[in-house]
Amino acid sequence: MRHRFRFTAALLATGLLVAGCGDAPKKATKATDEYPTSIDLKKGFDPNANFTYGYVQYASSWDPIESVTGGDFTFFAPVYDRLLQQDEDGKVEPMLATAFTPAADLASMTLKLREGLTFSDGTPFDATAVQFNLDRARAKNSKISGELYQITSVEVVDPLTVKINVNGGLGSLATGLTGRAGMMVSPAAAQAGIIQTEPVGAGAYVTTEIVPGDHVSYKKTDGYWEPGAQKVATMTYKLITDDNTRYNALMAGELDGASLNPDQLASAEKEGLAVITKPSAIFVYLALNTSKGQLGDPEVRKALNMAIDRKAISVGMYDGHCTPQIQPFPETSPGYSKKIGDGLDVFPYDPKAAKKILEEKGVKDLEITSVSPNVTIYTKFGEVIQAQLKEVGITVNVKSVPAAQVVQDFSIDKSVEATSSVFTGINDPDALSGRYLQPKALFNPGGAEYPELMKYAAEGAAVLDPAERSKAYEKMMDAWVDSPPHMLPVCMVHLAAAFQTNVSGVSQTASGAADLRDVAVAKK
Q1: What's the helix, strand, coil split of the chain in %, to 5?
Q2: Which parts of 230-342 fold into alpha helices (H)?
Q3: Which range is least confidently modeled, 63-77, 395-409, 436-450?
Q4: Coil, helix or strand for 400?
Q5: Which long-range contacts (CB under 8 A, 24 or more apart) does 205-213 make?
Q6: Each residue's pLDDT tens digit, 276-289
Q7: How far is CA 337 from CA 30, 191, 346, 451, 478, in A?
Q8: Cα 52 to chain centroid, rounded
Q9: Which of 85, 94, 245, 426 has its Cβ near the most Cβ atoms within 10 Å?
Q10: What is the mean pLDDT of residues 89-117?
């Protein structure tokens, strides 16, 4: 058993203090691309093994359409197969659908389904079940309806063929079907009203024990369509929101693997753990309710952009494993504007200039409340934003609450002015529009309207060719910097995970989460 490891609180506090004051510390560890992105499957694994994983967010509901952040994907994945899936590099591939074919006019997509499958309760998986799931996911009461906004109707062509009709946005539909919107639940279980507390899917595993807010145990699904994906007999996923506690549990041998903060990479590797990391589509941000006071003024939002020291946050909180930029898209995305780049010259860290803008706009003694997820790193992020905005005369009261409560306070009740949080949506630029930018988007509580942004976002989402999409999104980003919206991206996180040395068959994905579908554990 390895010795327990604890981060030095004084060093962490110093890094955060420096980040808050804008004098970035020097990055001492190696670059992200010097670490592996995967651990190849090793021969001789134990098919009867149990795999135990520690993660930062629990599924508050087992119904995918009630998912509010996307961070619960890790707990969902073993039980809910999707229509499509993404590989390590973000390429869309078949899963429950064996083929997905766009129409020549881009007005529809046709899915061919696997034959002879059933959900874990015995309900047939067929075109009718897919139609039921997609109609349910895009309904008004669905919290993920924004991810399927482009669908106008779903047709059953035959028992194994589904036609999805769209009104634009076909370019992002396939990616959407790799996430929560593509997760298939048993229609019988959904109609019986048990999905919220008891998952019934078509995945490689079924749950055997669920302790809300603590852990979930899984076992192999009998007769699963891809038995090669069941390399361990059982799994236990544990919720551990405190970063040090999760790390220490891994070091003590209580876990086989765990999600890491990027600033824990060097220590984990030094202690002999197998680490993986990769730049992702995940980013931390500050979002504002534009209906509150002067937060609806784009000039005020320009000032707030210039009050945030993105470089210091990247180095001070993430040890440099977080790309500081004003864009909400990673460099590998068709949404990324090469012309703007990181944009740190567009909105440079300049508290004096920010204060001047605020004074010219008559912003004085502004006090706001911001909610952050009660995961250690995101709470600290909220506190750093608090410290940096204080330098320009803005008082931020930080509340650390569970992820579901963040949505409740900021998006639904609209009782707070801001949230310092993390984007965990699907790996496609169009995901931002449906979840943040549309007037009725879940994370647009002020109902702000951005006609120019939405015009170019729609153009970018309508086509499949990445080069054509990029042309539209470049115009979108030009409009973004001219009149910044209520979301202020800070840096793109290079998410990471660590494993015991007898674990293999895992990879870090472009979407941010570790891919554990092929995880294997050898006997020690």
Answers
A1: 30, 25, 45
A2: 243-251, 265-270, 298-307, 310-318
A3: 63-77
A4: strand
A5: 205/78, 205/79, 205/230, 205/235, 206/79, 206/120, 207/79, 208/234, 210/62, 212/58, 213/58, 213/239
A6: 999 999 999 999 99
A7: 27, 44, 13, 19, 8
A8: 22
A9: 426
A10: 94
